[in-house]
Every structure is written in structure tokens, then in C-alpha cells.
Design goal:
alpha/beta, Nucleotidyltransferase, domain 5, about 50% helix
Length: about 375
């Protein structure tokens, strides 16, 4: 068995303080340890950075560590996002943000779960990682403030679109109760222009409710148009949009999908091979092989859902708008003559191949085989 390499940075001889943070909305559980000693637990109010800094200094004193001893910490990625990581880095702490789904857990049907137990688990894994064993978890790559901010625009657009659809569906459902059916994608008329099945106007309370929802729909549409204007302006004038414009040069890829792929994946991720691409998008296969049992469980679905959804949309458009490309012809040979289920399976495989081809197109300038570009 190969011996795990221990770097000088993580040498066990150097005194250091380990810190695991278990976060919640009201309070944080801090667990300190300096090696073989019993962990020291402290609870502080959530977000109290000054108290956190004092507790780190006090823990060094209690555990008999020098004041300049390095501090290594970790916490699970969650609703707090990355501001705590940036605050710890500013304090001089070596922090890691951990993917919660990657942490080793007991396989028992029932297991005890408390904040202290979770913090102890994190602390043990942190000490293992600092001594070279990083197999117990996966560290999240933290984006910069600008890279994180880039993702807000299209995510807000997604939420506003869902709100608008929900309101339109609700208005349609209420009108159906009065025998009124609106055509799809029609501009919502004012309630005083509508008549019930017997030619009578809408009941007053129902008309008032529909009018309020119609006004909210109007506001949402204005906000969506404002976001589109901001994106078009940024695409035309701001530096660093070369990858988005390059993706849009390919037929079957528009502004929305190219923006999502660039902001969520290509602009800041360090991608080394196609395996990492499959894992980041959740399009990687998950085989189950034990003894004589061999079966495929489908895609992992563990990656970025927005990238995965965008790639499925692009794959369907690719078949329609890039029929002469090598990938479209591969799909037709393998799945074109099959049924609906076979085509749905095939479109996922096409999405993964297409994602790899787009990465090579942006990274190496290699246009996907047989693909056509839009006119300038």
C-alpha cells in the first residue's frame, strides 16, 4: 500500500490550532483542538466575528499554544455561503469550505446527530486532511466576490420567471371557475373586460384579486426587461465577456444559456479533464458493480443543476439547428430510431458530449466537428 505523503506545511511537528465550525441561524458551535488533547467547545452568537477572534486567541492560551501558531478551520457550505470564509482568511486563518454531501457518515439506519457530534466529525476530518488524508471529504472551490456576484443576475431572472408563471397560472385557474379560458401567452386583460359564462361581469372580490395579481405580473415583466437590458449592455461593453460571445457564435446557443454556462462554470472553474466536467455538471454516470451484478444507475445529478438544465436545452436545440454536426449524427445513429425513453436517455449522453466539446471550443478554440457558426 502506498504511503500517504505529508507535506512540510502540514507537518505534525509544527504546533497548530484546529477549529471546526458548526453553523446555525442562532448560534455557532466552535470546537478547538491542538492535537491529542480533548476538544474545547464554545458557543457564540451567529455572526459575532469579534467574539470568534477572541475565542481563537483564548483557545491558544488554554491549549498552551504560541500566539503565532497557525489556525486551520473548516465549515460546511450552506446558507451562509462564503462570507465567513473571507472573514476567516482576513483573520489569518487557513479555512476550507466543505461540501456537506461528501462527508463520510455512518451507514446505520439510525444515528445520533447533534451539533457537537457534527463538529467533532468535521474536526477529525480536518486533522486528517492537514496530515495528508483528504479522502474523507471534498473541499469547495470558493469564487471571488466578483465571480459570485456574476451569478446573481441570471438566478434572479430565473426566480422572477417562475413567479410570473405561477401568477399567470393562478389567474387562469381562477378564471376557469367562471367559465373563462385564456389562450396561452396572451396579454392578461383587465378584469372589467372579462365576462363570466352567462355574460355577467366578474364578482367584485374575484375581480379585485385578479387585478392585484395582474399588477404583480406587470411589475415582474418590467423587472425582467430591465435585467435583459443590463445583460445586453454588459455583453456589448464590459470586458471579460469573450467566452459568452464565443458561445453565442454557435448556432443553437443563445444569450440565456451561454450566460449561465459562463457564469456558473467556464469563467472561474479550473477544469482539467472531461471527468471533472461530468462531475461538475452532474452528468457523470454512476455504475453499480458488485460481484456478478452489473447495472447503471443513471447520471449522478450531484453537480450544478443550472448547468445540467442548460445543457439539456442546448442538446435538444443542437439536434434541430446543427443536424450536420458529428454529435447530432452520432445521436441519430444511436438513438434516432428508438422510442421516447431511448431518446431521453440519449439526449443526456449528447448533453455530456456537447459540454466537453464546448469546453474544448473555449479552451483550445476547436469548433465542434461539423458545427456551423452564426453570421457576424
Amino acid at each position: 500500500m502506498e504511503t500517504t505523503r505529508v507535506t512540510d506545511e502540514y507537518s505534525a511537528a509544527a504546533p497548530r490550532l484546529y477549529l471546526a465550525l458548526e453553523l446555525s441561524a442562532a448560534q455557532w458551535v466552535l470546537l478547538f483542538c491542538a492535537g491529542g488533547q480533548r476538544p474545547r467547545q464554545v458557543r457564540i452568537a451567529a455572526g459575532d466575528l469579534q467574539r470568534l477572534q477572541r475565542e481563537i486567541a483564548l483557545a491558544k492560551s488554554k491549549l498552551q499554544l504560541p500566539a503565532d501558531a497557525p489556525v486551520y478551520s473548516c465549515y460546511e457550505a450552506g446558507r451562509e455561503a462564503f462570507w465567513i470564509h473571507r472573514a476567516l482568511i482576513a483573520m489569518g486563518v487557513h479555512n476550507s469550505v466543505i461540501d456537506p454531501a461528501s462527508i463520510e457518515v455512518s451507514q446505520r439506519a439510525k444515528r445520533v446527530k447533534t451539533d457537537r457530534i457534527d463538529a467533532e466529525k468535521l474536526l477529525k476530518l480536518l486533522m486528517r486532511a492537514c496530515n495528508g488524508d483528504c479522502e474523507g471529504w471534498r473541499v469547495v472551490r470558493v469564487p471571488s466576490v466578483q465571480q459570485e456576484d456574476e451569478r446573481h443576475q441570471h438566478r434572479e431572472r430565473e426566480r422572477l420567471g417562475k413567479e410570473r408563471t405561477a401568477l399567470r397560472n393562478r389567474i387562469g385557474s381562477l378564471l376557469v371557475t367562471q367559465g373563462i379560458r385564456l389562450p396561452r401567452r396572451r396579454v392578461l386583460p383587465a378584469p372589467d373586460q372579462l365576462r363570466c359564462w352567462d355574460g355577467q361581469p366578474l364578482p367584485p372580490h374575484l375581480a379585485a384579486e385578479i387585478e392585484r395579481m395582474r399588477q404583480r405580473c406587470k411589475l415582474l415583466e418590467e423587472q425582467l426587461r430591465a435585467i435583459e437590458k443590463q445583460r445586453l449592455k454588459a455583453l456589448a461593453s464590459e470586458p471579460g465577456r469573450e467566452q459568452t460571445r464565443a458561445l453565442m457564435r454557435l448556432r443553437a446557443i443563445g444569450l440565456q444559456t451561454s450566460w449561465i454556462l459562463n457564469a456558473e462554470l467556464f469563467s472561474w472553474r479550473e477544469i482539467r479533464n472531461r471527468g471533472q466536467l461530468g462531475a461538475l455538471s452532474g452528468l457523470a454516470p454512476t455504475p453499480f458493480a458488485s460481484g456478478q451484478l452489473q447495472r447503471e444507475q443513471g447520471i449522478s445529478g450531484a453537480g450544478n443543476r443550472r448547468v445540467r438544465t442548460s445543457m439539456i436545452e442546448i442538446a435538444w436545440s443542437w439536434l434541430r439547428l446543427q443536424p450536420g454536426s458529428a454529435l447530432a449524427q452520432w445521436f441519430q445513429r444511436r438513438f434516432g430510431s428508438g422510442g421516447k425513453r431511448s431518446r431521453r436517455i440519449g439526449i443526456v449522453a449528447l448533453a455530456r458530449k456537447l459540454l466537453v466539446a464546448l469546453w474544448r471550443y473555449l479552451h483550445d478554440g476547436v469548433v465542434p466537428a461539423g458545427a456551423t457558426l452564426k453570421a457576424a
